[in-house]
């Protein structure tokens, strides 16, 4: 298998608004990140993925970009950003930037021009259609509630927005638009960045007819995703982007791709096809809800095994996996697949073990490394996320559903769980800001914070450091192949990694019970030692059978 730096790296994601405020305005910023670079470096990570810092009216916290060449005032200046890049490179860390080009902000100059008239040269940078029978051009639903179309009175047409109406979709069919994107990418790469995370990049090619989606339940609007996920020209566009831009630089790329399956991912990440290196897939993030993200159902561990194993085996030797359990769009994993009450530390470590021992490039989302948890605020006023607020309005204010019931789904699924300010210490406002934080801080910061974690050698933080160190010193963790064992067990997730004559046995208990582990007879495994564990294990006891404590994790090396 081809060895490359981005396969051997560990990435840390920063959501700048919530990371560290340096000037007391209550909003995290670039100088705040610079202050904390040593903290991140000490964790052992090699790469930072920075969520968008470009000029934006912040309808979707920077995922609505008004100027791709400028830094948002809230976050600082271009000089601040350049200082950040220099400080990172001085520490031998790489920076990957968020590339949000499925849509722009409606405040972007292109859109301002486009809506002036039907024959404006920028009109075709976006996707416009006349109405149908006095209604929207089709029945697609926006990810953030309501129709995916917004009517523009002046030109009597609608424009498409898969996300908010302040995020009009860009028209990739237009070669001029594509060239603008490539030029912009080169501009940033020439400034010295080390790659891109590409926002919903598998949505950029739409089926040109934009047909109505099937609507068996007769809903007002339904998802049109089958007509834009992995659409007809997406591979052509990415190959073009690769040819024009990426192939000229030694950079890392990861495409965020809701609705991608293993077969498609093989195409996106097979290096011989010259597209991307990795994708963020969502299968494992979609296991604990029904077709509507707000309809929670508990995780069945067997579904997780089935999904992860398909991805591990499917991309082995063909493409490359990204590994993540958290990001700015997902609830905190320790509250989700772990237990943030009695076993917060244990389960956070167990989940980290499970993830970091897989094949792929691991991503850590800010706060994950100290075991930050979900929040539950009583009032909708405390929430800031457009997805949450629009859904609440649709269901409660306009739809008459019960406040309490809708809040329950926000507690388990809302994106703001991940967006509360980083908990640095037990001081006022968790050390995040000296002013009023832009979003309410999780009240558990007096016990869960970075200062505590750094000073406590048994903390989640130190466990992550160990996991990262192991990856750097054991090739098998990066390159070994993966095989699931005990597929039928619904509490223990166990797997074997193999690289020539070396093996790793990874055993994790996803339950809050003590459960027996027994290595299947047909497995030959000679244990040589314990690599890491989240409870004390006496010596290297025989690892063919033992009792696992709640959320216990053990990794044995052997042959
Ligand atoms: O997210 C794309 C996306 O579809 C989801 O992750 C989405 O946030 C979630 O499933 C909604 O239920 C990306 C960004 O990560 C997200 O923050 C942006 O809001 C979105 O694109 C639009 O740019
Ligand atoms: Ca600030």
UniProtKB/TrEMBL annotation:
It comes from the Bacteria. The keyword Protein transport does not apply. Residues 13-419 form the Glycosyl hydrolase family 13 catalytic domain. SMART domains: Aamy. GO terms for cellular component: cytoplasm. One of its GO terms (biological process) is oligosaccharide catabolic process. Signal peptide: none annotated. This is oligo-1,6-glucosidase. It comes from Salinibacillus xinjiangensis.
